[in-house]
Amino acid sequence: MTDPTTVLHHGPGRLRTAVAAALVLLLAVATTTLWAVGRSQPTAAAWTDVVQAQGQVSIASVAGGTVTDVVAGDSFSCALVGGQVWCTGDNSVGQLGTGDTASTDVFVGPVRGELQGKTVTKVDAGTAHVCATTDDAVYCWGLNDRGQLGVEGVPSSTLPVRVPTHGHEASVTDLEVGASSSCVVADDKAYCWGGTHTQLGSTGTPVQINGGALPETATVTDVAVGDDSACLVADGVPYCWGANARGQLGDGTTSTSHLPVQVVTTGVLAGFTSHDVAVGNQFACVVASGANSAERTFCWGDNSSKQLGQSSNGAQVDLSTTPLQVRGALSELRSGLVAVGGKTACVLAYDGAAYCWGDNSSAQTGANQDEWTVPAVRDRPERVLTRQMSADSVLQRVDVSTDHGCTLTTGGNVYCWGANTKGQLGIQGTAGTAGRKVFPWPVTPTWSAWR
After folding, report:
1. What CATH number is given to the structural domain containing 193?
2. What secondary structure does DSSP assign to 368-413, as a single string?
């Protein structure tokens, strides 16, 4: 089975036109890409005009390339296609980047404004804002009530605004967006902006994260930000800062810290080197490698929704101020990437499958057999169902938010699951409470493009 591939993370008055305006009621998902079947389809050269054509058109190919990333925000989703960002779902504060606030249940795009003509390399979504990187800049759009767009003086922006990153734009290697804050890794250092609860100690201006237990010469390789805390990995060691009422800093205390503290690396993390960190609502998880390169997942903080993954056979603690190894299927499987949203966690394992646990109130673990057997929480990692995918599908990306999740296969197919109240699953005609999908479902391949 193929090893998971690390995917580094994501105008007014213009008329959007459905990419398949005269679709017949026949939609198909090919084994390696998204397809639309109909008579009126866009040219492969550009999303500017509609021509009469027969047969199938690959949406990914028309957009200029394959889907390379998909991210889940709160009640909206975004995909990176051919270096361009497309989004679906809630748009009440401009988080879809369309230049307006009209929500949609199909992917619309590409996001333009200051991103027009540029190639996006990474994208990520938070509660109600999105950030993306190009080769020479960082851009954000959506809600800005906490300075999460990196600029001050505007409550929100329906189009991308450039973040002043003070000469570090070309060296960004990681991008992470939290509930109301954003961070990047550039030149081996972490820079963050926005937020509250002291997880950043700043307003809308990007600042370098340093001091506290973080060595001055440390090389930062990963950063993550959640609802009220943030973490980074430097030289294989995790550090966190911010609110700590539920032990989410992992330092063995419940004391808030404005500066980075070292996560306890004795106990279960002894002998492990941390790689990928993710932060949610009052908890955090990290993937670390130990003896024989056995990558395992560890979590700490709040456990009110069983998001620490201890299983019914393990110690069901209310919280843990130090890391605990995730049990169940991930006790033996090698972990690749970890993603968290709200009180739910997911891991992309080396067997090419995704495993999720924790809060399942909106079916956001994607491991549910049917609508009638959806537990409120899952106390251990459960394999995300792939019954709507081809038998040989291998997952290369998984992301989860407070109410839904999405995944991307190595063939470029996007599937989403969970709540669909705002059209965040990208399945046309299903927005609303009745549109919930309890396991992954292919997104509608008829995407709306600018004309």
Report:
1. 2.130.10.30
2. -SSTT---SEEEEEEEPP-TTS-TT--EEEEEE-SSEEEEEETTS-
